């Protein structure tokens, strides 16, 4: 049996802007994991996971395709398909296998915390198949394949979660142009796609520990599934796109300042994170969607009142908020106020980087 695991992630700054190629974000990998166990099988493969409520999913090869027995063409089947393409390209014999997926990223009672389980399951599955087929892929190649699998399901996903889950630690991430990669994927071999110059703007830089601050994480509830886009239709397109361009530039500037201050200047880190909160508020107003819900707003306000900085983490609309707390400040005070307003503190820490060598 082959066992792999991948950590979940949290965004620290730069969310939304990071979906635009070349715009940076900062993320942390967390010390909660999703685990994949792979065993060889005969004649067909299965995927066992608590997510497949109707029992295991069964897959077979038909020609060059992977065919699943019931609907969701999800991240696991995308990972199986891309790794099977690579296996075939390398001239290795097709073999069947079963995957068993278990996760600490969601609560056993069914609460989903938004810690990046789709990214983690993709990364852990790619890693398991890399070992099963003896492909000897580098960390960077495993990230690339996880991104290619992911964008075949969600073309707009930035891949920041995959970078955090693959590399671990604190990272600064910049996405490549995924639509260019998808176009390449349609025509060329995977070997060509993995070596293509289109990856050139993709950056994954380790940041090390932030100086003088502790990160607190609070879960504020399940995000609403539908976004309201009221404002978007009622504003002139040119005004929206000018403001969006401004948001992208402001976000880039903030993340660059954050990275520069990261290991040296806690008060600059706090100031930038407070600014990032306001940038996300502005983006929410521009799009007519609630990124900072009332609960996330309470989390941020309590942080700012205590001399810390708070902001939504990731897409917002619920899920987690993060608070950067100066080392001298009192975490207990904030945590007890959270409990009073129904915010669930999550005991999460950074999962240190386990990878060899420097990322790309
Ligand atoms: C969601 O976790 C973060 C976003 O930036 C989307 C993405 O990066 O794919 C909003």
Task: Provide structural commentary.
There is one protein chain. This protein has helices spanning 75-89, 117-132, 139-153, 160-167, 178-187, 190-194, 230-234, 237-261, 266-287, 294-305, 331-340; strands at 2-13, 24-41, 45-49, 57-62, 65-68, 96-103, 170-174, 203-206, 213-219, 309-312, 320-326, 344-346. The protein has 360 residues and is of the alpha+beta class. Helix 1 (75-89) runs parallel beside helix 2, helix 1 (75-89) packs across helix 3 and helix 8 packs antiparallel against helix 9 (266-287). (R)-mevalonate binds at residues 11, 15-16, 18-19, 157-158, 160, 314-315.
- Share of β-strand residues: 15-25%
Helix percentage range: 25-40%
- Overall strand count: 12
Task: Estimate the global geometry from the Cα principal axes.
Answer: globular
Q: How many alpha or pi helices?
A: 11
How is the main sheet built? Answer: 8 strands, mixed
Bound molecules: (R)-mevalonate
- Which consecutive residue ranges, at least 5 long each, have pLDDT under 50? 227-231
Order of helices and strands: EEEEEHEHHHEHHEEHHHHEEHE
Q: End-to-end span in angstroms? A: 30 Å
Helix-and-strand structural type: alpha+beta
Radius of gyration (Å): 21 Å
Please state the average pLDDT score: 92
List the helices and strands and how they pair.
Elements lengths: L1 E12 L10 E18 L3 E5 L7 E6 L2 E4 L6 H15 L6 E8 L13 H16 L6 H15 L6 H8 L2 E5 L3 H10 L2 H5 L8 E4 L6 E7 L10 H5 L2 H25 L4 H22 L6 H12 L3 E4 L7 E7 L4 H10 L3 E3 L14
Parallel strand pairs: 3-6
Antiparallel strand pairs: 1-2, 2-6, 2-7, 3-4, 4-5, 7-8, 9-11, 9-12, 10-11
The protein binds (R)-mevalonate.
């Amino acid at each position: 049996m082959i066992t792999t695991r991948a950590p979940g992630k949290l965004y620290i700054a730069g969310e939304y802007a990071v979906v635009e190629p070349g715009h940076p974000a900062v993320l942390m990998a967390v010390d909660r994991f999703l685990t994949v166990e792979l065993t060889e099988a005969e004649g067909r493969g299965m995927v066992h996971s608590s997510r497949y409520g109707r029992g295991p999913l069964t897959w077979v090869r038909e020609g060059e395709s992977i065919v699943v027995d019931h609907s969701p063409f999800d991240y696991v089947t995308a990972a199986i398909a891309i790794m099977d393409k690579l296996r075939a390209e390398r001239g290795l014999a097709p073999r069947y296998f079963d995957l068993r997926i278990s996760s600490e990223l969601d609560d056993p009672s069914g609460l989903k915390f938004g810690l990046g389980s789709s990214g983690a399951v993709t990364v852990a599955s790619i890693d398991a198949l890399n070992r099963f087929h003896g492909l000897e892929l580098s960390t960077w190649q495993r990230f690339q394949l996880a991104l290619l699998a992911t964008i075949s399901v969600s073309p707009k996903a930035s891949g920041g979660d995959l970078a955090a889950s693959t590399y671990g630690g604190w990272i600064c991430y910049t996405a490549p142009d995924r639509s260019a990669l998808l176009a390449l994927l349609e025509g060329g071999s995977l070997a060509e796609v993995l070596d293509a110059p289109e990856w050139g703007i993709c950056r994954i830089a380790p940041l090390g520990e932030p100086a003088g601050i502790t990160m607190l994480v609070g879960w504020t509830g399940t995000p609403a599934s539908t976004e309201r886009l009221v404002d978007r239709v009622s504003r002139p397109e040119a005004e929206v796109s000018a403001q969006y361009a401004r948001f992208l530039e402001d976000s880039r500037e903030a993340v660059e300042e954050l990275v520069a201050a990261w290991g040296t200047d806690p008060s600059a880190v706090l100031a930038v994170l407070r600014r990032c909160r306001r940038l996300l508020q502005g983006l929410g107003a521009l799009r007519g969607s609630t990124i900072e819900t009332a609960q996330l707003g309470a989390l941020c306000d309590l942080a700012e009142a205590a001399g810390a900085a708070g902001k939504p983490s990731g897409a917002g609309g619920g899920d987690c908020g993060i608070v950067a707390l100066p080392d001298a400040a009192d975490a207990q005070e904030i945590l007890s106020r959270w409990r009073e307003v129904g915010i669930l503190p999550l005991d999460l820490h950074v999962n240190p980087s386990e990878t060899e060598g420097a990322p790309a």
